Fold this sequence. Notes:
Elements: H1 10-13, H2 16-22, H3 32-45, E1 49-50, H4 71-78, E2 92-97, H5 102-111, E3 120-123, E4 129-132, E5 142-145
Amino acid sequence: MILKPDNFDLQELVCPDVFKQYGEFAWNFFDPRLLITIDRIRTKLNKRIFVNNWADGGSLDERGLRCIKCKLVQAKIESGKLYESAHLLGKGVDFDVEGLLAEEVRLWIAANKNVWPYPIRLERDVNWIHLDLFDMDNGQKVYLFKA
């Protein structure tokens, strides 16, 4: 069974190449726990969350599921660096929340840790929210990390 979140369209969560190649089948590439978590965040915050906006003519296209054609991934490959990212595995997204600073959102997510069904990681010291589901196996429901 494919999980489709109530509050997100597929184009918000995948790069254009993935959408063009796979269409609705791309829902299969996501860890369902990620979709459940970000859907719950959007519902609880009751504010717009911006992941990708390429489908609406915007410039954001690599903040959800990334593929090997994405510029960020290509840059890592060309530099000879190994690039293992939650974005490639359907386990991570970057987003902004309308009207809130990234640090406000991180604090809110941490303060509401008992609401989230799965342990999550949040990147700290950036002006956007990076959330992923890499399991740190440290017993923390919300874990802040430095990339």
